[in-house]
Amino acid sequence: MVLARERSDTVTGSPAPDGDRSDFNRLVFKAMGTQCQVDFACSSGPRAREFKAEVLAWVESFEARFSRFRPDSLVSRVNALAGREGVDLDEEAESLFGLVDWYHWSTGGLFDPSALPLLALWDYHNPSAKVPDAVAVKAALAKVGWKKVVHRDRKLMLPEPGMGIDVGGIGKEYAVDSVLQMGVARGFPSVHVNFGNDLRVAGPAPQGGPWLVGLEDPRTPGECWGGVAVTRQAVTTSGDYLRFFSAEGRRFGHILDPRTGWPVSNGCQSVTVVAPTCTEAGILSTTAFILGQDEGYRFISGWQQAEGCLWQGDKRMQTEGFGSYVYTSM
Amino acid sequence: MISNRSRYRVVLLSFMVAGLMLTASPRRARAETLVDLKTLYYIEDGNRIEVIAPMAAFQTETGDGLTIRLEGIYNSISGATPTGAPLVGGTKSASVAPVVIVKKPKPVIPDDGGDDDGGEDQEENDKGNRVRRPATINALSSHSPVSAQAFNSLSGATPPVPPVPPTPTPTPGKKGTTVPAATTPASTGGKLPVANFEDTREAATLDLSYRTGRHTPGIALSYSQESDYLSRGVALKDAIDFNKKNTTLLVGVAGTFDDVRPANGLPDDTKTTYDLMVGVTQVLDPLTLLTINGTIGRTEGFLSDPYKVVEMNGALAQEKRPDSRDKQILFGSLVRYVEALDGSLESSYRFYNDSFGVQAHTLTLAWYQKLGPQWMVRPLLRYYTQSEADFYAVRFTGSPHYYSSDYRNSQMSSLGGGLKVIWTPNSRISLDVAYERYEQWGLDNVTPDELYPSANIIMVGLRLWF
Question: Which of A172, A190, A204 is nearest to A285 (CA)?
């Protein structure tokens, strides 16, 4: 969930392959370091092309502002000016960081975009990554804490040099919600947005009825243990079974626990959440993953309109209402 | 621990103000030492917010015109307050975009008993022919992997960078699957998104005034602290008598300096208020007293409620109010003693206007009826109505500059009614018991009715003279 910069090469959309709804359009492109896909129902070719262009332009602009890998982005400017001065926020940034404030609080601090010093230490992008020593982790941890970040008067400031933010934990999900809203606002009766396997839908699937979302089995990636049927929800899965490195005989996943500064190692393999928005679902699934199966289960249970399923070994726990979404029998 | 202060603060303030007015009223002109002990109990319907507020005060007058009053208040507050997020499934809050509703936003992870939370709601959702599954499934024996190709979309951990496998291609209708109707869970039906909180507040005020000639200058210092809020205030005032004491001019300035320390991770901030008040009290005739005063004030700093959110473009966002507010208040009161009934009528009207766009009117009628030498009853009726703030809406789209869905910024009215019984068996002791019922309702036909709380207030007081 890192906003790495990748060239947003435009893959022109093509009608849905051989579905019975020929008015479905598809746009596939790479952005935010992952594969992005947008499907939407629109019978007018010009309107569909216009929407695709709008999506690509928005995603490009979003990434240009919020990727920490782009030196001229807003996030990079905030990081570069840490301990010195604040950076003015535009409307979108104000809205995004307002959400950050809210979710940092409501997850008890487990969602913390100021964990960049830790992310830099645990450099998952480096194939020869090593396990940092405990002193370095402690020093990096001292620079982490969204509560210290000054966010007011449409400005964001990191009060101490060495602090840094990375909105990777919310940016992609926020982008999914935004693109979906753009499609809905255009009046498309059905929209499906999937960025890096985090998705949200509105309206019926091409075959009619709900969208069928496969849930990847963390034990056999590429295969699904089941699926859920949704028509107006987001589905996200957090897990470290695809991104990790092994060193010193141990396996280190890419999701860090901001309380300890170390990768999560509670045995949890993946958490799937179904919620009204992708932002909410993504933050809940990552938070529950950090908490582990038992506590994560209770955490998700405490949220209205959110349901979750947590894998640990061969044991799966799911919240009371999750079963009502499940489509494929296990 | 999450705390919220605004609502009960308003309520308490109104009672404190009422208390001060009573203290300052010329009804009982004694120059001695007294002690006040009071307890207020405030409970909203549905047990939403409960406040227990004992108060103790000591007041003494020295022979040379100096009056000292020291007051201490302790509040214990607990309950739940609406977050500002729209109701789930409420008829008035039908929303195109589903919204995030937080039932339990406190960061504390619930204990074992917390498993039940949400279960009830889901119980409703699951009615019908959906199959209930146990919360825990050991999938080992029944696990049968399904290819991702069988689905419209895939949810899984984000692939490594650069992404190796592209997102599986959906194959709509491929398997000839006839999927059951889109049975997404029904809404939970008018459930109010609230934030739970629990807090205590300790407050003290010291009031000094000194009568010298026609002037009675005074200074008041106040201090109040909660886990997330600290307030310090200072006020200077002077009452000047004219016209054989039939006219009293009151002038005062006050400053309040608050520190806001939200428990939810928002940065600490400050709030500063300056007020200027000018008033006159005129004895119209031996039985009639008229008071008119005006106040202008400015508040600067963090004026949002850190615990309130709004629905913005389909998602939740922290509410945002302007960082300054100018207010103007005009207050008039008429007290008339009716000899024939041995009672007096107190009527007052208050007009409030501020730069948030709120205009409010408060009309209060109270009747003090003596029943023999020891008893007095006081029925009271208070009507309040306000217009909505410029930045109030139940949900927002686009990118407004300021936004709040706090119902207290909506167009609303309230009606309070109550009865107080005062017993003064001798000249050294007075006991009083009061009950007040407080109803509120919205006027915009948009804000859900459930947001407006009704409350019962019980007060017990004891005053001793020495």
Answer: A172
Amino acid at B362: T
**CA-based nearest distance A24→chain B, Å:** 10
CA–CA distance, B285 with B287 (Å, rounded to integer): 5
Return the bridge partners of A234, or none: A200, A275
Q: Does the pLDDT value for residue A140 go beyond 60?
A: yes
Cross-chain residue pair A270–B171, CB shorter than 8 Å: no
Q: Do A314 and B118 touch (CB under 8 A)?
A: no
Nearest to A311 by CA among B137, B119, B113: B137
Chain A residues 88-117 within an 8 A CB cutoff of chain B: 91-92, 95, 98-99, 101-102, 104-109
**Is the peptide bond prior to B165 cis by the omega test (within 30 degrees of 0)?**
no
Predicted ipTM of the assembly: 0.72
CA dist., res. A90 & res. B37, Å (int): 53
Domain map (residue ranges) of chain A: 1-68+166-199, 89-158, 210-330
CA distance to partner chain B, nearest, from residue A317 (Å): 4
Q: Which residue of A has its CA nearest to B185?
A: A324
* pLDDT tens digits, one per residue of B315-325: 667 789 999 99
Check whether B136 has a pLDDT greater than 80.
Answer: no
Name all domains of chain B by residue range, CATH numbers in brackets. Answer: 6-84+192-465 (2.40.160.40)
Percent helix, strand and coil across chain B, each to the nearest 5:
10, 55, 35
To which CATH superfamily is domain A89-158 assigned?
A: ApbE-like superfamily (1.10.3980.10)
Tell me which CATH homologous superfamily contains domain A210-330: ApbE-like domains (3.10.520.10)
